[in-house]
Amino acid sequence: NAKQEPVGRVRVYTPRMGEQQQERKAIRGELRRAIDDGQFRLLYQPKIDIASGACVGMEALVRWDHPQRGRISPDQFIPVAERSGLIVPLGEWVMNEACRQNRAWRDAGLPPLKVAVNVSAVQFLCQDVVDMVERALDAAALPPQALEVEITESIIMTDGAKVMRLLDGLRGLGVSLAIDDFGTGYSSLSYLKRLRVNCLKIDQSFVREMLRNEDDVRITRAILNIARDFGLEVVAEGIETADHVDFFRAEGCHLGQGYFWGRPMEPTDFHRFVADSASTEGLRAVVA
Ligand code: C2E
Ligand code: MG
Ligand code: MG
Ligand code: MG
User: Fold this and answer.
1) Is 176 in the pocket of ligand 1 (CB under 6 A)?
2) Residue 146 CB less than 6 A away from ligand 1
3) Engineering a disulfide at 216: which of 194, 201, 210, 262 sits with its beta carbon 3.0 to 4.6 angstroms away?
4) Ligand 1 atom at shortest distance from the alpha carbon of 42
5) Each residue of 59-70: pLDDT tens digit?
6) Does ligand 1 have an atom closer than 6 angstroms to the CB of 154?
7) Which element (helix H / strand E) includes 66?
8) How confident is residue 283, by pLDDT bands cut at 50, 70 and 90?
């Protein structure tokens, strides 16, 4: 669900682009083997209740630990994986691993948290995502409430009927749906009345600029109003500063995600983060 390149626009060829194309070609060639070799990892970023600071869930974010190039970020390989169709086996690995890890944390005594997994529009077009998700939940013995699927608005513009059927299927399972990067797509808002999504995630580009740019404040307020009117949860992404926190608290936004509370973390670090924040919550409850 990385940003799409504009199609059919005339571009001037530059040597730098040549390098980028070489790079992409190299990545495409190595992706397949990387999946089989187990070179991918998931990091987890906490989702926070803004009022209390408690961790209420996490988003799984994939990384490629390449044996020669080191750690590669998803913006560099997800678009390539989407174009080559390899997003299907990769996305399936991500779903299984996120569910497996969630089960492991529950077994280790962490409170039951909902894990959010990004699913690409290409996966919806190429496979029965409902079946894939159901198998992952079963394999990890997780209830559907343990999972949120994040999709982008671009998905609505693809194959309307088929995608709607799959999204309904996911909701039928009892899995939550979130619209990621909300406000950055070009789709009409009318899908909100048809699609039973649970959550809108305000794109971090609005949050990043909002302390300088009044328009981004207006857009952010409009999104919060849409969420309120439709009875949806809303998560502010890219919260980096105390000013961001203050703004969203004052605007009545309940949930946030961002470097202010925690970067995407290795599983062991996330475990510690939740264990520590749970014990502080407990302390607060005792003191109060
Ligand atoms: P996303 O789903 O919108 O994820 C949020 C991105 O914002 C993550 O980047 C996260 O590290 C970053 N972020 C979180 N808090 C902050 C902050 O306070 N400031 C800033 N500047 N950034 C913040 P990441 O991990 O590099 O992922 C980029 C994108 O790659 C994701 O955007 C998502 O679209 C895609 N992606 C990641 N993992 C997967 C996956 O497993 N499957 C698919 N299909 N796409 C994935
Ligand atoms: Mg994104
Ligand atoms: Mg996401
Ligand atoms: Mg996002």
Assistant:
1) no
2) no
3) 210
4) 41
5) 999 999 999 999
6) no
7) strand 55-66
8) low
- Residue 155 in contact with ligand 1 by CB distance below 6 A: no
How far does residue 201's CA lie from ligand 4's centre (Å)? 7
Residue 10 has pLDDT above 60, yes or no: no
Which token pair is 257? Answer: 């995600």
Distance from Cα 223 to the centre of ligand 3, integer Å: 17
Structural tokens at position 70: 């080191």
Mean pLDDT of all residues belonging to the chain = 90
CA distance 87 to 93: 10
What is the token pair recorded at 192? 């909100």
pTM of the model: 0.91
**Cα–Cα distance measured from residue 266 to residue 122, given in angstroms and rounded to the nearest whole number:** 27
Residue where the block lists tokens 């997994």: 117
Task: Convert 73-87 to b/e letters by CB count within 10 Å (16 or more is b).
Answer: ebeebbbbbbebebb
Ligand minimally distant from the alpha carbon of residue 78? 1
- What is the residue whose two structure tokens read 């990545």? 27
> Mean pLDDT, to the nearest integer, of 245-251?
95
